[in-house]
């Protein structure tokens, strides 16, 4: 049976535009590494879902003016059909001050390093490639 996902995720990037903050999902749910965010609930817009998910996963209250919509990643794979609404936020603080409420923690990596942690052709691969195009135009 094919899984269908309609998610909103946040690319947290650092001021150097060379590093991103990713979620260590080990012990939570697959994949092992990913982006903070999650599924849209009934009646939610992608932005509303994103702000709720960031509050639930990082205990951070972002507003609409603090995030930028970067685009949408979509694909229809043999076992997965997905639409991922990708937002971004420049995080100027110390990543160690973030409180991760879902998953095992976080890690600061380059987008290139994140590509080595993603399933080629999967949703996180598409998100990371979009992030690369925005961070390194």
UniProtKB/TrEMBL annotation:
**Tagged with keyword Hydrolase:** yes
Keyword check for Signal: no
Q: Which InterPro entries match?
A: NUDIX_hydrolase-like_dom_sf (IPR015797), NUDIX_hydrolase_CS (IPR020084), NUDIX_hydrolase_dom (IPR000086)
Q: Check the record and name the SUPFAM superfamilies matching this protein.
A: Nudix (SSF55811)
Q: Which UniProt keywords are present, listed alphabetically?
A: Hydrolase
Show the Gene3D superfamilies listed in the entry: Nucleoside Triphosphate Pyrophosphohydrolase (3.90.79.10)
| Sample GO molecular function, one term | hydrolase activity
Which top-rank group of organisms is this from? Bacteria
Q: Which residues form the Nudix hydrolase domain?
A: 3-131
Record-given protein name: Nudix hydrolase domain-containing protein
Write down the species. Answer: Deinococcus cellulosilyticus (strain DSM 18568 / NBRC 106333 / KACC 11606 / 5516J-15)
Organism lineage reads as: Bacteria, Thermotogati, Deinococcota, Deinococci, Deinococcales
């Amino acid at each position: 049976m094919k899984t269908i996902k309609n998610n909103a995720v946040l690319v947290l990037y650092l001021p150097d535009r060379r590093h991103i903050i990713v979620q260590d999902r080990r012990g939570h749910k697959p994949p092992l590494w990913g982006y903070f965010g999650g599924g849209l609930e009934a009646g939610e817009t992608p932005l509303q879902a994103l702000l709720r998910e960031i509050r639930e996963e990082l205990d951070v209250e972002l507003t609409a003016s603090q995030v930028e919509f970067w685009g949408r990643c979509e694909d229809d794979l043999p076992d997965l059909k997905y639409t991922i609404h990708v937002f971004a936020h420049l995080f100027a603080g110390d990543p160690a001050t973030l409180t991760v409420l879902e998953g095992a923690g976080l890690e600061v990596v380059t987008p290139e390093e994140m590509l080595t942690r993603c399933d080629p052709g999967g949703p996180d691969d598409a998100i990371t490639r979009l992030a690369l195009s925005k961070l390194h135009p």
